[in-house]
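Throughout our pipeline, every protein is held as a single compact record rather than as scattered files. Such a record has a labelled line for the sequence and another for the backbone structure tokens. The remainder of this section carries one protein's record, kept here as part of the documentation:
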Amino acid sequence: MTTATKSTRDRLEANPGSETWALLQELVLSQRPRWMEVIREHDLIPPHWIALQTLEEPKPMGEVAKQLACDNSNVTWITDRLEERGLVTRTPAPHDRRVRLLVLTPKGRRLREDISRRLAEPPAAIAELAADEQRRLRDILKRVVDRLRSESA
């Protein structure tokens, strides 16, 4: 172990919040290959999947661009690919016909539900925890996510 790694680890252990956040990041990043495998099975790339996830309700393309942290022209390219596959449609916004809304099609909704269901299968490291440990972990993470949602609303 290098000195920098040891000092980072010592600093994290001294701050439980930072250590928790670092562990969550490690957990999520460890699952990236599985995540990529699942979306690639459906001939998607990450921006396609993220766009599909944002479309619970029709959404202006500009808002999707903000959620993807990309330029509007990139959302046009992403939308073109999704529309070609029948996963989304573009419709004029009722309040302003210049604004285009992205709408998830029934086919897009089914695909999103299928991928979401597969990605919701926990990795072995979680699945092998005792049921009460899984519930405690879920409850804590749910409180964190609920708080994040209320702060962004």
Residues 67 and 143 are 22 Å apart (CA to CA).
